[in-house]
Amino acid sequence: MHWAPIIGAMCNLYRMNKATAEVANWFGRSSQLGANFAAEVYPGYPGLVAEGDGVRAMTWGFPLVLKSKKTGAPLKPKPVNNTREDKLGTGFWRDSFVKRRCLIPVTAWAEAEGAKGSMTRTWYSLPGQDLFAVAGVWRPTAEWGEAYSMVMVDGCEQMADVHDRMPTILRREDWSRWTDGTPEEAFALCRVWDGPLAIGVRSRCRAAMSVASAVPRLATSCPLQARHLPAAARLRLSPSGRSLRTVAP
Fold first, then answer.
1. Do the Cβ atoms of 16 and 41 come closer than 8 Å?
2. pTM for this structure?
3. What phi, psi does 192 have (nearest 5°)?
């Protein structure tokens, strides 16, 4: 049976409004000359990624090629731009999670809500911070060159009315643990954000590439949910790569 990742309507738009050199300096890495990306990043378009010793542009979303039900011919690839933390051990993601983890600089991410034709966007960011780092994985692809995807976890309480998932936000002290630690150490960082969020709401979703400003307000802290394990928990990858299993030390 052909296995394919679940494509959900999680974060499909985020904003990163800093120049490449600024981002590189923030991460303490070298920058790619002439990196091409927009301030608002959509699936299938380039965004900045911190990987190894540098910061460079990659395509947001792993290409997924499905076949036509009528003809059996390959269809145009679709970008799979998010992965749930509980899917990191599956065949589509496992190799990238084990070998190629990265940091994604983000200013704010958006979630859409409402009926089609009258949807609004809610923007989420960290109060007082122009940038924060989100956990990502990446891999080389034949279709789009280097591509990356965000790792998603359960949404915190302040997101409950909009979405039940959110990006995995990493504190500075956890950056190297995510990129260079063992898979067990990295997986322990896939947990609900327990800090405050700044929330801004745009009145309406216009054309896909429209730009509008959001008015932030400070939200209360997001409590950790009981289902998430303590950092001391260990992760075991099954030999088949189809599941992640946690066990207490």
1. yes
2. 0.78
3. -65, 140
Cα gap 74→80, rounded to integer Å: 16
Q: List CB contacts of 19: < 8 A, sequence separation 6 or more.
A: none
Beta-bridge mates of residue 199:
124, 217
Query: What beta strand segments (E) does 21-119 contain?
Result: 30-31, 40-41, 46-51, 54-60, 62-64, 78-80, 82-84, 101-106, 108-113
Per-residue confidence in pLDDT tens, the chain, 249 aa: 333 443 344 579 999 999 999 999 999 999 988 889 999 999 999 999 999 999 999 999 999 999 988 898 989 999 999 999 999 999 999 999 999 999 999 999 998 777 777 778 889 999 999 999 999 999 999 999 999 999 999 988 877 777 789 999 999 999 999 999 999 999 999 999 999 999 886 646 554 433 333 333 333 333 333 333 333 333 434 333 333 433 332
